[in-house]
Amino acid sequence: MALLSRAIVVLLLLSVVWMPTPASAADDGPMTMDDIVKLRRKRATYEEVVDEARKRGLAFDIDKKIEGRLRIMRFKPDHIEALKQIKENQDKPKTGPGAPGAGPVPADDPLARKALAEAPYGPRKSEPWHDGVLELIKAINAASTANLTMVPTRNYTVSAKKQYAVRYAKDVAKLEAHLRKTFPEPIKSGTNKKSTHIIILETRYEYENWVKAMFATYEQRGMQIGGGQDPKGMLLRAASFLMPTHAVMCLENVRGEDDRRHAVGYYVGHLAMRQFTEGRAPAAMVTGFGNYTETLLVGSPHTMVFSYTERKIDSSGDRWRRLVRERVVKREAGTIPSVMKYTTNDMKEPHYAEAWTFIETLTKAPEKFAKWVEAVRDFKRPKSSLEETYGMEESKIEKQWYKWAVSGR
């Protein structure tokens, strides 16, 4: 894969998983940390993990080290407290359901009394995993020896050489102000600056060192980055990449100032939508919002993300809307159901253009758009919740989208 010269970024559809240790108990015995890892790999919810612990008991104490690992795995405080109480009840010197090794424990933890929905992201209430991400990025920055300055804005943290950090933090702050002014909750509050990072490396040498430091830091903490046959090699060959909590760009390979601002503008929206919806937004919703904030900053979109192959782009002016306009006229444009199924593994320029114009159209009604984002975050299907929040059938929303793409009105 060739080095990139324009504002095309690698989107890492990667998972951060715990490196397993040899199992120390049978599947029906008290749970080990390895058992928790296996359940999460099978996409068990946090509540399901706690329920399993309630049935089987725990084979380990939840000390500060274990608690830190659980936080990085994004267990909420209530989940961790529930596991602590399960262990405490399990170790009580009594017979019956609370005794050591007896399996199920009394249902007296918070999650047994009340089903807990996933907590929304936002800066007003800092959560333990926010601190974990900040500490992780600090450790990577230090290990990379790139001498980066961390400049926090209201909702993001920009790490770069001081002159670049200050320069691009101003662009980020402009977009934050626009989002606060335009949208109600959950968009208004924005993301938490501890958990949302933009890292900008000046030279290729610094970029490669940062990537190596990231993998080493993850491994030191018992984590690994999965996705693809050689994720480390892929990143070392790229010019930039995105993960759920951070975006990384190498200035030496994104040389033009215009392209750099395009990328930063895109990062703001992409990272925000990933975190607003807690990772549940379809790809078109994420890329479309990234291109929306990119357009707010520099006037037009051209940033695309991909997994393994570079795609040719033309960043001139109104190209993307013209492209969609032509597809609408020729009856080749995607439908809402098809757009919702796009993935960054196979999206090409027309698909990014469609996703952008679709999201741009929806943002014309900011209160409804924010409600849609909230609905997706709360596990509702994007398509059905779209009709519900906008109060019209899919076909009518589609007509408005095509109309805006063709006429700009």
Keywords:
single chain; globular; disordered N terminus; seven-stranded mixed β-sheet; alpha/beta; two-stranded antiparallel sheet
Explained architecture:
With 409 residues, the protein is α/β, with parallel strands linked by helices. It has one domain. It is built from 17 helices and 9 strands. A 7-stranded mixed beta sheet has the order 3-4-5-8-7-1-9, sandwiched between helices. A two-stranded antiparallel ribbon has the order 2-6. It is globular, with a radius of gyration of 23 Å.
Tell me the helix content: 40-55%
Order of helices and strands: EEHHHHHHEEHEHEHEEHHEHHHHHH
Strand order of the largest sheet: 3-4-5-8-7-1-9
Basic shape: globular
User: What is the β-strand count?
Assistant: 9
Largest sheet composition: 7 strands, mixed
Structural class: alpha/beta
The proportion of strand residues reads 5-15%
Tally of discrete structural domains:
1
Low-confidence stretches: 1-8, 12-26, 93-124, 307-317
> Counting H and I runs of at least 4 residues, what is the number of helices?
17
Radius of gyration: 23 Å
Note the gap between the termini.
40 Å
Overall average residue pLDDT: 81
Structure in a nutshell:
The protein is α/β, with parallel strands linked by helices.
Helix-strand layout with pairing:
Layout: E1 8-11, E2 15-18, H1 33-41, H2 46-56, H3 64-72, H4 77-90, H5 110-113, H6 128-144, E3 149-152, E4 157-160, H7 162-182, E5 197-201, H8 204-220, E6 223-226, H9 231-237, E7 240-242, E8 246-250, H10 257-276, H11 283-298, E9 304-306, H12 319-329, H13 336-340, H14 349-362, H15 366-377, H16 382-390, H17 394-407
